Amino acid sequence: MAPRVLRKPCYGLAEICARWGVTEPDIANFVVAGELTLSVVVVRLPLEEGWIEEVDEGQFVNMPEQQRWFTGTLDLWPQDAWEVVTTGGHAVSSFRADGDRYRSVWARGDEPFDFLVLRERLVVRHDEVERFEATQAALAVPPASAPASGAGRGAPARYDWDEFCCEAAVALQVDGMPETQAALVRRMERWFAGRGQFPDQSTIKKKVALLWRRHAEALARLPA
Asked: Do residues 106 and 166 share a domain?
């Protein structure tokens, strides 16, 4: 008898829904809340990688480090993953990257090139499955008694940039794109302040610059 496979590098969306007893809309809600990352497996996708540099106040440019044919698993931005789950397919031009890094589809010519991600190609990486399940298991543990006021305070929680992206996407959909990038930065600073958090403004500017650039690129692709 062949041995049973106990671990896979990633799991399809239908398999994940069956494993967790949830629906695809549930998965979409976890994604847009920043609680789950969806990915896609690609083979020989032209990919450009590098870092983002601020060349002037509020002006950011991509600094390419390498261009290659990539084979492997790429993580999707929450708004892109949500679109794929809810509509069945969505064209993406960039993927999640750490810190001030970027990963984008390498347009090998003058014409822009987006990669179409279909719902049936969505996966969840094995380590993401383990992380999510550990988080869910922790929710079932009764919370410890709250420490006395002023005692037992630990370091402040790390800023949730996934939640930041979701809030920015919702704000743009509801309120529309502001006239300036600086106005969007101020909008997101107020959102953080409402949560009692005050990250460095330069970091917020970098995050907003990514969204601002993506929006401008999308507008440029619209028919005249």
From this structure: no
Do residues 121 and 64 touch, judged by C-beta distance below 8 A? no
Q: Which domain holds residue 128?
A: 8-134
How far is the C-alpha of 151 from the C-alpha of 92, rounded, in Å? Answer: 47
Which residues, listed in sequence order, are joined to residue 175 by a DSSP beta bridge?
A: none
| 15-54 confidence digits (pLDDT tens) | 999 999 999 999 999 999 999 999 999 999 999 999 988 8
- Residue 75 domain-assigned? yes
Residue burial 133-163, b: 16+ Cβ < 10 Å; e: rest: eeeeeeeeeeeeeeeeeeeeeeeeeebbebb
Domain boundary among 118, 134, 150: 134
- Measure Cα distances from 215 to 4, 12, 51, 98, 177 in Å: 47, 30, 19, 20, 9
Q: Report the first-to-last Cα separation within the chain, whole angstroms.
A: 62
Over residues 44-73, the pLDDT tens digits come to 999 999 998 887 777 888 899 999 999 999
Q: Is there a domain that residue 151 lies in?
A: no
3-class secondary-structure state, position 102: strand
Same domain, 114 and 47: yes
How does strand 39-56 pair with strand 101-105? antiparallel
The whole model's pTM is what?
A: 0.63
- Are 64 and 120 in contact by the 8 Å Cβ rule? The answer is no
**Distance in angstroms (rounded) separating the CA atoms of residues 60 and 57:** 8
